[in-house]
Amino acid sequence: MYLKLSWRNLWRNRKRTLITVSAIAFAVLAAVFMQSINRGSHEMMIDNMVRFHTGYVQLQDYRYDEEASLDNAFPYLPETETRALQAHDRITGVIPRIETFMLAGNDHTTRGAFVLGIDPEREHDFNGLRDHLSGGRFFEPGEDKAVVTEGLARRLELAAGDTLLLIGQGRFGMSANALFEISGIMRHPLHEINEQTVYLPLHSIQYLLSADEHITHLLIALDRERDTRNVRQALQQEFQDDELIAYTWPEMMPELLQLLEFDLVGAYVMAGVLYIVIGFGFFGTVLTMTLERMREFGVLLSVGMKRSRLAGVLLMETLFISFIGVLSGLGLSWLVLYYFYLNPIELTGQTAETIIEMGWEPILPVSFAADQFYTQGIIVFCIAVVVFLFPLLKVMNLNILEAARK
Q: Is the pLDDT of residue 98 over 90?
């Protein structure tokens, strides 16, 4: 009976109910959208750093972290790859790399360069590396050519088709010098890497550095980021007798985590301000709705309806309105986020230039994480329920004679 009565009460004044539901739905939309934008930027930052720099999990010699030397490279054999792939069912692939620093030069000058030996096919499958070419082409498997990032090419005044000189030191102090034809120029998404990087085929750099069948890092590709810790533990157990150690991306990039945590403080403050605004918005709506119904409440109490039963009806009305408003807001939020997921907000002007210089795309990405929907829905629902307690308190302290005369 209470359910039927409260439901009918809602639609006796459709305009009032729709205004209240709309306010709740808009509050949910605002809360979800704000968190989605914040999380989207974080996810893009992490994704770029993970795909182009560290991987979600990375396998390396246990001495390499303290001394990043080629002397601490480890053998990469077919059985090593097989064992890594079989360590956990969430591992989708492995990406071998050799990282070192050398002098890169033209016929009259040199610059310090970060030289990266890669398997071009696996790298492209992992991070779409070929899609960032700005000139020329990427070397094919078996070719002894180089790809240079735009920043380094500009500093050395090199272009596709020119010859690149590399001077450095291989394993155990051996000399490592060679000339490579530049097959392509690329614009790397990470600004620091874009200013100083040379890509070489893995077999070429292994020969150059006297590191046959050795690599410095083995990146692990996963199908779900949340399995990172479990995969790391599985790799640790598999390679515990091989002097290899597995690191997760948070362990390799603590500075990035600190930056994200600092940014989250501001996001939490903004969320708190938003919730306060939402609460006061609800309260104004509920206050108006309650004052409009004071005569109704007085008449019901004067004809014998108990205050507790009237409070129960109002509570059911509150739950109905809150539930409908939150569901409507979640549906609307999904549609809005889906639109901006397909059509990201593009930044322009000086803001876009600053973002590009930092190595990111000049867009505002959105996150589609499921937890942000139900988390914000629950928070707004609780705010609505708390605010809607005002009519209950009003009923419990209502003067029947004064209310009936209104």
A: yes
- Euclidean distance between CA atoms 249 and 241, whole angstroms: 23
- 236 with 96, same domain: the answer is yes
What total number of domains does the chain contain?
Answer: 2
Any domain includes 58 = no
Residue 250 lies in a domain: no
Query: Could you report the per-residue pLDDT of 325-350, keeping only the tens digit for each?
Result: 888 988 998 999 888 888 877 777 77
Whether 281 and 363 map to the same domain: the answer is yes
Q: What is the pLDDT of the chain when averaged over all its residues?
A: 82
Length of the chain: 406
For residue 45, how many C-alpha atoms fall within 13 Å in the half-sphere facing its CB? 17
Q: Using one digit for the tens of pLDDT, what is the confidence trace for 259-308?
A: 766 766 777 777 788 788 777 777 777 777 777 777 777 777 777 777 77
Higher-pLDDT residue of 396 and 161 is 161
Could you give the count of Cα atoms lying within 13 Å of 154 in the half-sphere of its Cβ?
9
DSSP string, 227-277: GHHHHHHHHHHHTTTTTEEEEEHHHH-HHHHHHHHHHHHHHHHHHHHHHHH
**pLDDT score of 271:** 76
Other Cβ atoms closer than 10 A to 74:
22
The reported pTM is: 0.67
Query: For 273-279, which contacts have Cβ atoms below 8 Å and span 24 or more sequence positions?
Result: 274/30, 274/31, 274/34, 275/31, 275/379, 275/383, 278/27, 278/30, 278/31, 278/380, 278/383, 279/383, 279/386, 279/387
Q: Which two tokens stand for residue 19?
A: 């205004």
With b for 16 or more beta-carbon neighbours within 10 A and e for fewer, the 179-218 pattern comes to ebebbbbbebbbeebbbbbbbbbbbbbbbbbbbeebbbbb
pLDDT value for 405: 59
Q: Which two tokens stand for residue 33?
A: 């959208």
**Do residue 193 and residue 342 come from a single domain?**
no
Helix residue spans in 142-253 (DSSP H): 150-156, 191-194, 202-208, 228-238, 249-252
Does residue 353 belong to any structural domain of this protein? yes
Identify whether residues 138 and 262 lie together within a single domain: no
- Residue 220 domain boundaries: 63-242
Contacts (Cβ under 8 Å, ≥6 apart) of 350: none
